[in-house]
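Quick entry, no commentary yet.
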Amino acid sequence: MSALAPSPLAIVDAEPLPRQEEVLTDAALAFVAELHRQFTPRRDELLARRAERRAEIARTSTLDFLPETAAVREDDSWKVAPAPAALNDRRVEITGPTDRKMTINALNSGAKVWLADFEDASAPTWENVVLGQLNLTDAYERRIDFTDERTGKSYALKGADELATVVMRPRGWHLDERHLQVDGKAVPGALVDFGLYFFHNAKRLIELGKGPYLYLPKTESYLEARLWNDIFVFAQDYVGIPQGTVRATVLIETITAAYQMEEILYELRDHASGLNAGRWDYLFSIVKNFRDGGSKFVLPDRNLVTMTAPFMRAYTELLVRTCHKRGAHAIGGMAAFIPSRKDAEVNKVAFEKVKNDKDREANDGFDGSWVAHPDLVPIAMKSFDAVLGDKPNQKDRLREDVSVAPGDLIAIDSLDAKPTYDGLVNAVQVGIRYIEAWLRGLGAVAIFNLMEDAATAEISRSQIWQWINAGVVFENGETATADLARKVAAEELAAIREEIGDEAFASGKWQQAHDLLLQVSLDADYADFLTLPAYEQLR
């Protein structure tokens, strides 16, 4: 362990929280400050490179595999490090935020892995950031059991051998943590989330037979993966654990990363455990990057873009082939359905869709997949059990039959579907309802029987923006305009007030959410991430 100097980190504008001193120790803050000093300048450079690359896409309306890294792709000799035992079987993974109830339910869910989320399923209030860390440590120490005062229901962890393996997801590179600053500069949220988690739990997890396992979100290039790898090397030396103890699964949820999958695995090869097909953020990234590329890049309603769309098939099949060629796990996308307690018919239809989705992924060669609700774990498990049997994964299926050309990944116009007026209404509805909950500190929200997170709101507002700027004409003859979006949003706001009553409406953040959705949907200057202006309003 390095000698400790006083931490230059200042806690700014944050109300004290119960037991925060257990998370925000001098030693942990000194570690986060050192991460900030060593790595934030490179983070800043890489964010600037994102803007340069986006400008190039705007100019050319195309993407390709990188000529400068062809040697990495053509070298068949390298593989990622073998998976540790706790991550070898990942056939079903459940996702969710790190509040106390979710922590227990996810660990008990029967899934092989729990994605403990500080990113899209968590609004980054100071309370969520700090107490989420505390909940994970409490879970590892088996002191998280509690009784809900409101309902009287008790929550308790099952036996250690029945619990899911935790894979923690920090915030993306673009988000800062305003409550932790060095010399007036906010520390990147990714370094706060990773730093606190790693510092407190790396050795504890090794003692439990596991390790500090991570999901890396919103990666846009192999250089961003290289930055993470350098952070892991530094962190492992700092606390004195063996190199290669950290394992990271990278979400391929940006269109630029889809062209750099092998390079991303190569950069992280001593610390990589797989790639994941993050479908909603991926669609958001396509719209964001090709938003001015003309009609051939206009996406239809998000619910009409299924995983069988040709460009989505190209993406997922390339991911499986890439992972298995390099000895990594390929993890499939999210089943977001939330079962209804009132409508058995809704459940029947939805469960069938989930089953078909997971059957397809298992048969395509994926080693596991995501669900958003414990009731979906058995459905997904059955799909993967049918293909895997007793095998922990199917990394031996190399999918050498797959061949994806650069244009296949962006062949949006291969879809017959078109944007609809109902699609616009749904985008407004989901956008307002999600943002309102986010501004109250909730990152994972059930809306219309689907578990929505920040990626959903991003695709909603991006599609509104794209359809207006492309002058889309809907099937009812109406043209997508800013005025039409305002009219639909006003109608939705009135419908919500009618639905929940004046008192609940007044105590929520509905007008604020309405205004913010219109801001990021209608501004000529497209915001890179909805969560950037939203974070300014998060209190």
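second:
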Amino acid sequence: MLIIRKRGVLCLPLLLLIFLISVTNSYATISQDYNSALNQFRALAKNSKQARYRSNWKRLEDKFLAIYQANPDGAHAPKVLYYMGRVNEELAKRSYLSSDYQAAVDYYNRCARRFTKHSWTDDSLYRLSRIQYYNLNKAADARRTLNIILRKYKNGDKYKSAIALHRKIVADINSSKAKSNSGSHAVSKAVAEAAKSVSTVRKKSHRAASKVALKDIRFTSSNDYTRVVLDLSGDARYQYKFLNADPSRNLPFRLYIDLEGTAPVKSVKDELKIYDGILRMIRVGKPVPTTSRVVLDFESVQKYTVFALENPYRVVVDVSAPKDGKMSHPPVDLSKKFAAPKPNKKPSRTIPPSRKVPDLIEQLGLTVKTVMIDAGHGGKDPGASKNRIREKDYVLKVAKMLGKKLKAKGFNVLYTRSRDVFIPLEERTAKANVQKVDLFVSLHINANRKRSVNGIETYYLNLARSKSARRVAARENAITEKRISDLQFILTDLMLNSKMQESKALAELVQKSMVKTVRARGWKSKSNGVRSAPFYVLMGAKMPSILVELGYCSNATEAKRLRNSSYLNLLADGIANALSTYRRNLKNYAAM
């Protein structure tokens, strides 16, 4: 390949050509993977013997999901979401589990929300309505779904089918009402008493639900990123809505979250003025007696995400804004009922000749200057404790060792904590985003009920692919393994803008370097490799982020190593060398 240089700098057109070739190759790969997954779906649906095994359907779902994550806005994305719904629907026909039907509903819904103008959207909505009516016994929901087709997709191929199903549902509902009315005169006193009893129970449960307290509102804010956390005393249903700014009425961009069955404690202020970034104000009110409403006022909004974390239960709001504070289009939100329009492409601006390549390198994220080191747990949360090791103490020790080594290599170093204090998991990544760090490294020590389990392992944010990964994620998130499957679904949205491939590459470098460094000094440490899992502490990170498990304190031999300062120093050396290699690789790529 001919590389054109001017004073040692790669010309911008060649960089763009390389980028275009990469995009073309990526599309071809995605298309090939999609066709392969589609063929597998058809074959599995026809093979009655193989279709009986749940694992076959779940592996196929993972394959479709990987294609979706590779390009969530590409031409194949809506079709992939549709087939993820089909996979779960076919699985439900064999498992008879409502949870599998619900998973299909969620994927069909997502296809319809994100791709409102795609030719497959009405197909997704129609299949969704059939599941709601025939399998989940939700006639009202099915009618609402069909109404969307009848209003918005009159030219779609499912329009006539939607009319027929709508008429059937209405007829069935009317027939049911007629039967109910004809037999109403025969209702006995006992039945009436039973109805009264049920009503009383409902009122009691309603009052019980309203006992959930909105305990606190926390926030971390900068000029282009904000994370707000609503701390609750228990689980609560919530819904939210975004409102555009109205300059004529002097109204800012607003996002409100309604928390059903909750009431704020006295310490939560009705109004909190902030003005330290894009977050302008937080207001708390009660639109109805049993619901608390939290309103967030913003200077500008480009994208927002709302999700819940558990143990303790809290609702997290992530908001990003353009760096210049200006907004030329409605915010993009993957969780709204209908997705906002895609933003128009901004016109290219002229870059001064002397700044062309450095600016492009910055835009592509090809620089590493600042690293944030996160010592896991801390304060009231000791982490894993076994064989004279408390996780929170030893990871802090390694964090400080690593920080000194990175500073010696020319990195700027920040810490989520530099002493024994408790910091909620969601605040750690928020700090990294606000500080605009380039890499995020979270340090931990593992534990397992089986004392024989040992080894070093490194994780990046993605779906858990193994039972072991699910177990580790559950422990670090302080939730049960059963809840990990619910968390995986949330992740399919949250990971769209996370740097998964960069994180995976960083994790591979760190894992290899740590193991190589300690083995070179005679330590017989086992490598458990690089794994993916849904960790709260990595969620929402805007930079390559990894979680390192330095070893198992539950294993007596490995615990002895971890108590040895020389061994910990070698682990820190391995991580530092890997981060330095990662930075050098980026520089070499940028200067090709």
